[in-house]
Amino acid sequence: MVSVGGVVERSSGVTAAVTVERSRAELEGSSALDPLRRLGEGVSYELRPGPGAWGTEVHAAWRGPGSTADARARLERAVREVRQLAETGEVLRNEPRPAGHRSRTPQGALVDWAERHSDRFERLRKAWS
Amino acid sequence: MRALCWDGVDKLSVQQVDEPRIVNDQDAVVKVLMSAACGSDLHLVDGYIPGMRAGDVLGHEFIAEVVEVGPGVRERKVGERVVVCSFIACGRCAHCRRGETSLCDNGNPDWGLTSALWGETAGGCFGYSHLMGGWAGSHAEYVRVPYADQGLFPVPDEVSTTRALFASDAAPTGWMGADLAGTSPGDVVAVWGAGGVGQMAARAAMLLGAERVVVVDSVPERLAQVRDHVGAETLDADAVDVQDALRELTGGRGPDVCIEAVGMEASGIGRGIRPLAAYDWVKQQLRLQTDRPTAVREAITACRKGGSVFVLGVFGGVVDKFPLGAVMGKGLTLRAAQQHGHRYIPMLLERMASGELTTEHLATHPMPLEDGARGYELFKHKRDGCVRPVFVL
After folding, report:
1. Burial letters for B316-329: b for 16+ Cβ neighbours within 10 Å, e otherwise?
2. What residues form DSSP beta bridges with B36?
3. What is the pTM of this model?
4. What is the per-residue pLDDT across B214-229, written as a single tens digit (0 to 9) for each?
5. DSSP annotation of B361
6. Which regions of B70-211 does DSSP assign to beta strands (E)?
7. Are B330 and B306 in contact (CB under 8 A)?
8. Is B51 in contact with A87 (Cβ distance < 8 A)?
9. What ipTM, to 2 d.p.?
10. Rounded to a whole number, what is the distance in Å from the CA of B185 to chain A's nearest CA?
11. B272: left (phi over 0), alpha (psi -120 to 50) or beta
12. Which A residues in the span 14-53 are in contact with B, Cβ-Cβ below 8 Å?
């Protein structure tokens, strides 16, 4: 069973899911699904109607090569890009952006690294449970 | 261009930085007219919000003029004077369509960081750390605004720039607290904190029909503003026992609605020995808890049975000695949120135009951007009656 918006491991690989504010008919055949298609044949996905007014659930599973951490991050990023493309038509970028002097400090290096790899942090939410 | 940057804990400077440009089709670039410091910015300055990087541009409450729009912008036009909602929302995701725009699924490109902290991704906010998207802030000459059709609100000609400025953040935040707490005609509403957000929450409660509204603080100038400009009652926490006074004021019941507008750096002011306030301070300094929930505890304790508590002050992590038993035992409704400004700003601008909602008094210290560090110093230490420094560009 895959939870909405979450990631769970199965013996066969890694899965990710998001809920998209679009109908299944709008999503099927849409270029919004390209981020998942680009991941190749090792990724499968399924569109399921959400309950009530919750649009469509996009469930994706990774069965391709690569480490589990890489797979999880790439799959999670891909489903979120699908949602953005379907809902807004573009993937939002926060760079380039204005900034003052970036002094070289351990904390600064940590923030830079965390931002570059923010897709790997999603899994840490499980530490609270 | 010039921008006020965070250089480290308690270190701010005005620097020359690159001008922003259109990155996504739905972006606009705006020229800032005024940008206010918000109480929640002090949490960044003081180092209590993780994810700040030296060189980050601060500021999220601002009014501006549109100078460039991307090819995907349909509604906004160059030359318009606009209020910019402090939160970045796409307007089309499930949460935006439900009016919960600070929870937008698409406004925070650094989504994994808050997902790790809070179990799901928070929305994006200008100038509020890399947790909230790493967006450059408004204490600058120009700002890039994503989803411009959703986040820019034209200002009626009859509303002054200073009045409209606070429709960006303080006014919708306060209104949301009173609204989502369920304020109803005849209610007694208590608000902790007489800063900009607390004053706006009090005014919102009055306009929503509350019979009595009382604001708790200990800064004389701020309490005077509440009486003179908002029209609410005040309790000086240095002069009275707040819990006793609220019981007396409500015939022993407690307020129907309690709104906390203080946040993670509550001073624990008040008469007599405050052991829990001291405990909070020590634990926060030792980083054994991230936030000081002193005012939240007071609000929960004061609230009547079956009443409603809304947390407007910003909290980022974990707290200790949280009175969950009181929430359960008194059957309280406890809610909190960052501001869902997109659903309130048009209505607030109309009320500002009609004179129902005035905010100019909050801008106690207008000053040029070059004085930004001094402005924050005055604001942080509440010197010279400073309620809000406003940088005029």
Report:
1. beebeeebeebeee
2. B61, B390
3. 0.94
4. 999 999 999 999 999 9
5. G
6. 81-84, 87-88, 124-125, 142-145, 152-154, 188-192
7. yes
8. no
9. 0.93
10. 32
11. left
12. 18-19, 21
